[in-house]
Amino acid sequence: IELPKSPTGIRGLDEITLGGLPRGRTSLVVGKAGSGKTLLGMEFLVHGALDFGEPGVFISFEETPGDLVENVASLGYDLNDLQERNLLAIDHVEVSRSDIIETGEFDLEALFIRLNYAIDSIGAKRIVLDTIESLFSGIANTGILRAELRRLFFWLKDKGVTAVVTGESGGTTMTRHGLEEYISDCVILLDHRVDDQISTRRLRVVKYRGSVHGTNEYPFLIDEDGISVLPITSTGLS
Amino acid sequence: MTDTEKTAGENGEKWILRLYVAGQTPKSLAAFASIKRICEEHLAGRYEIEVIDLLEHPQLARGDQIFAVPTLVRKLPPPLRKIIGDLSNTEKVLVGLDVQPSR
Questions:
Q1: Which residue in the set B54, B65, B86 is minimally distant from A105, CB to CB?
Q2: Residue B91: inside a domain, yes or no?
Q3: Which residues form the KaiB domain (chain B) (predicted)?
Q4: Does the beta-carbon distance from A104 to B66 stay under 8 Å?
């Protein structure tokens, strides 16, 4: 049987994934800064709330709520309105190592509590964690951090929310801190290249467990309507 | 449980500390015992430790940007400082709180 899917509402993406992201599972969206991963996550939540009756939570580890509202306002999304209607909750988790000292054992239970509180406050069915890798710049003890990230991804599955986690592309590994080891259900790679002044954006579904999907690279655009993935494979274009 | 000391210390500088925990876990209890001992030794009479259990007050985690447990926040004197962990290393806690050891 085909895996249940959570439609993203992003033009073209639901076609190449034959229905959207794996429902109740965690998907990883990888890309460099400016590749569109934050926007992809936000659109997943906005369409979820407006088109599919699924409220969403956006956990931002970098951008402030004000920036997020502003960045998508030009696309016609009113995040303040969505928040007032309890269709969206935003929590900005600031992790700056400058004013934090670590001594002895700790865990990230407070992060779990914040996510749980945001999810339960609006009965969210979707959640985005935008660049959870910022935790690596805030926490020195990576042993504890990796164990807690593993626990977090299991917790998200138990919570039954469809999650999108974004990660920075790495040099040798797919993501800078190897998040791909923890997330095995669905991995999407966003690429943004500029070759002799022509800027091309490409999306590739690197992995999608239990589902057929277009494995090619698909060009996509970001315009005033947001992201649109062009179902013609980029190989077909050249 | 709030542990308040009414009288201000010699130079009157009042220390306000806030310890965030999530239930009575061993780490949290150890953290409270450590900070209590350190304050009695170095800040006697001029400190206040407020313990916030995030299981009971989840919405309070955002205010001080708490993501780890236990986390000790020095609210006063400024600037805000944070220490994460069971506070087992006294020297590090003293440095983290910027406390001049009293002896």
A1: B86
A2: yes
A3: 18-99
A4: no
Q: Is the pLDDT of residue A39 over 90?
A: yes
**pLDDT classification of B9: cutoffs 50, 70, 90:** very low
How does DSSP assign chain A, residue by residue? -PPPEE----BTHHHHTTSSEETTSEEEEEE-TTSSHHHHHHHHHHHHHHHSS--EEEEESSS-HHHHHHHHHTTT--HHHHHHTTSEEEEE----GGGEEE-S--B-HHHHHHHHHHHHHHT-SEEEEETTTHHHHH-S-HHHHHHHHHHHHHHHHHHT-EEEEEEEBPSSSSBTT-GGGT--SEEEEEEEEEETTEEEEEEEEEEETTS----SEEEEEEETTEEEE-SS-HHHH-
Total number of domains constituting chain B: 1
pTM: 0.92
> pLDDT tens digit string along A197-228?
888 999 999 999 888 776 788 999 999 989 99
CB within 8 Å: A103 and B82:
no
**How confident is the prediction for chain B on average, in pLDDT?**
88
Q: How far is A112 from chain B (nearest CA, A)?
A: 8
Verify whether the Cβ–Cβ distance B68 to A116 is below 8 Å: no
User: Domain for residue B50, yes or no?
Assistant: yes
| Cβ of residue A16 closer than 8 Å to a chain B Cβ | no
B103 is a domain residue: no
Rounded mean pLDDT of A3-29?
A: 95
Q: Tell me, yes or no, whether B4 lies in a domain.
A: no
Structure ipTM:
0.89
A132 shares contact with chain B (CB less than 8 Å): no
CATH number at residue B39: 3.40.30.10
